[in-house]
Design brief:
- The protein is an alpha+beta fold.
- It has 8 helices and 9 strands.
- A 4-stranded antiparallel sheet has the order 4-5-6-7. A 3-stranded antiparallel sheet has the order 1-3-2. The chain has a two-stranded antiparallel sheet with strand order 8-9.
- A hairpin with a 5-residue loop joins β5 and β6.
């Protein structure tokens, strides 16, 4: 496979546009950006061939190929390293793992072949996303409905931070349910007003006095959600525990497409008059303190 035809599917200006957007939204190197864009274009062409919908270069924009695509490591290596003398199947597989950790692709092995699904950041698919005004509603965390989507949100972020795949959504969901059983009051979500999907989360964790020493230890010794540890280093205080003197902001996360908003509309119910007030704020990070 020749590298030049792949690059020519986008104009130089458009290619540079996607490169800059990726590097702004994701902690990614320029080399990794090049490999991801090549894979994206390749799977888009593969999708068009399967659907028998011919595409003509240059593309005005990159759309999302729908579904999973079977790709061998040899095939991926030809896409990544088509303009290089070096580049093995193994290194291509390792690069796929890195792109998966960054949340740009999903990959699975069906027993015979590797399957890949593109997970491009919404900012690349919807350039005007930040101009939209979406109604957001702070709400109580519901362990039955919110545990799994919030666990997926947290796991993707921890994988990006730690550059590892150890953060299991299944494990995190069970921890969140345990926390909610003991102190649901300290757990809140931020929902979209149109579909009620949770896109933000925080957990206030009342801490037993015996665990306060952990606040003065290295941060790595206090991790629990993002690492596979059998025992939580912080013990939760029970309601009515008068020895509790600290509340730990245990988790605070907002989904990536909504982090860069400077103005967001949301509704907040005021306990005093049970009314609903429409508020405009300048930083979305302030929502979760309500």
């Amino acid at each position: 496979m020749n590298a030049q035809p792949l690059e020519q599917w986008l104009s130089p200006a458009k290619y540079q546009h996607y490169t800059l957007l990726l590097m702004q939204q994701v902690s990614i190197t320029q080399q990794q950006t090049k490999y991801f864009l090549r894979l994206w274009i390749y799977l888009l062409l593969k999708d068009s061939q399967l659907k028998r919908i011919p595409l003509q270069p240059p593309l005005t924009e990159l759309t999302l190929p729908q579904g999973w695509f079977t790709c061998s490591c040899k095939e991926v290596a030809e896409v990544f390293y088509c303009d290089q003398e070096q580049g093995s199947n193994r290194s291509a597989g390792m690069m796929l793992d890195k792109l998966a950790v960054l949340g740009l692709i999903r990959k699975r092995f069906d027993g015979n072949c590797t399957q890949i699904e593109i997970q491009a950041p919404p900012e690349l698919l919807h350039p005007n996303l930040q101009e939209l005004h979406i109604l957001l509603e702070p709400d109580q965390f519901d362990p039955r409905c919110d545990a799994v989507p919030i666990a997926n949100l947290l796991a993707s972020n921890y994988q990006w931070l730690n550059r590892s795949l150890k953060a299991s959504p299944y494990r995190i969901a069970n921890i969140l349910r345990d926390w909610a059983e003991h102190y649901a009051t300290g757990m809140r979500v931020l929902r979209r007003g149109d579909n009620h999907n949770p896109l933000g989360f925080y957990a206030l964790y009342p801490t037993q006095s015996i665990s306060e020493a952990k606040f003065f230890s290295p941060p790595s010794q206090g991790l629990h959600l993002s690492q596979v540890t059998a025992v939580d280093p912080f013990l939760m205080a029970s309601p009515g525990d008068l020895s509790c003197r600290a509340v730990f902001v245990r988790s605070w996360m907002i989904d990536r497409p909504y982090r860069q908003y400077y103005r967001v509309h949301f509704s907040a119910r005021c306990p005093a008059d049970h009314g609903e007030t429409s508020i405009k704020i300048f930083r979305i990070y302030g929502i979760c303190i309500l």
